[in-house]
Task: inverse folding
């Protein structure tokens, strides 16, 4: 429990640092705009250098971990009448439970319960097995092993209009298998 709380603290501090960097970035942009407006810096040369720097920065940051936290909505307080009404058990033989390949962040509620597992290398995203499916997805039938405690996003997700899952939901035509590689469903924490 101490390790979990200390990890959460470190991740929150990391996010605070990210917010501080964002503020510094805004100040830098203000300074650049002032230098351009004063004629001290050439806009064309700045854009050329910035384009090169962005490519280098993307390459550098692609290797870094990002901490994300899911919705703060109480997943147990959701009104079942407003949730998608999809007969998953009947559809799994067709769609193969592809929604269980999607990547998304867990909420503090999920983490506090200690039931739903998360990726250590990508805090706090839902953990996946070697087969690409959520570790809680039962391989034999693709049912959920933590259904009662499943995350908010699993409760509210509607696959019917998602082209990664269905080419045509009404006619029960699933998307090609390659359409659902591990993909991100990300909501940034405030």
Result:
């Amino acid at each position: 429990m101490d390790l979990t709380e200390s990890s959460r603290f470190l991740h929150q501090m990391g996010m605070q640092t990210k917010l501080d960097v964002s503020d510094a970035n805004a100040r830098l942009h203000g300074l650049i705009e002032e230098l351009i407006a004063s004629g001290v810096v050439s806009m064309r040369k700045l854009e050329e250098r910035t384009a090169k720097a962005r490519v280098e920065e993307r390459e550098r940051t692609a290797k870094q971990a990002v901490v994300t936290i899911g919705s703060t909505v109480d997943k147990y307080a959701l009104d079942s009448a407003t949730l998608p009404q999809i007969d998953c058990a009947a559809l799994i033989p067709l769609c193969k439970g592809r929604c269980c390949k999607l990547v998304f962040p867990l909420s503090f509620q999920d983490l506090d319960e200690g039931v739903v597992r998360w990726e250590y290398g990508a805090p706090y995203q839902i953990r996946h097995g070697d087969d690409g499916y959520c570790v809680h997805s039962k391989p034999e039938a693709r049912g959920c092993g933590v259904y009662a405690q499943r995350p908010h996003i699993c409760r509210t997700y509607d696959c019917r209009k998602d082209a990664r899952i269905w080419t045509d939901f009404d006619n029960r035509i699933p998307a090609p298998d390659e359409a659902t590689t591990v993909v991100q469903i990300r909501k940034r924490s405030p």
Remarks:
- Residues 65 and 122 are 6 Å apart (CA to CA).
- The radius of gyration is 21 Å.
- Residues 183-190 have pLDDT under 50 and may be disordered.
- Residues 75-179 form one domain.
